[in-house]
């Protein structure tokens, strides 16, 4: 699967799983580790864990083995490493605290604060 296609499948899955505030960050020029970071919010620990679990399951069904999954034990922030696309699924308060979008894209504007 091509990188753009993988990114699009990830976003579609997150939308289907009712993840909130999905952001796609193109980090090709900033990172040698991945091309895209996708950041999404879940409404509760259970929702974050469920979104991550179902995303991993769908990726496996499509023949993509995740390189790793971190944080699903606490489920405040679950990272799903798909190689060229790294997915961060976070509780809203955790996302607000770490501000990954701001870290990786200095031009990023939080639509919620406008």
From TrEMBL:
Keywords: Cytoplasm, Repressor, Translation regulation. Its main location: cytoplasm. GO terms for cellular component: cytoplasm. InterPro entries: Iojap/RsfS/C7orf30, NT_sf. It comes from the Bacteria. It is found in: Cytoplasm. One of its GO terms (molecular function) is ribosomal large subunit binding. Transmembrane segments: none annotated. GO terms for biological process: cytosolic ribosome assembly; negative regulation of ribosome biogenesis; negative regulation of translation. Interacts with ribosomal protein uL14 (rplN). Functions as a ribosomal silencing factor. Interacts with ribosomal protein uL14 (rplN), blocking formation of intersubunit bridge B8. Prevents association of the 30S and 50S ribosomal subunits and the formation of functional ribosomes, thus repressing translation. Belongs to the Iojap/RsfS family. This is Ribosomal silencing factor RsfS. It comes from Kangiella geojedonensis. The lineage of its organism: Bacteria, Pseudomonadati, Pseudomonadota, Gammaproteobacteria, Kangiellales.
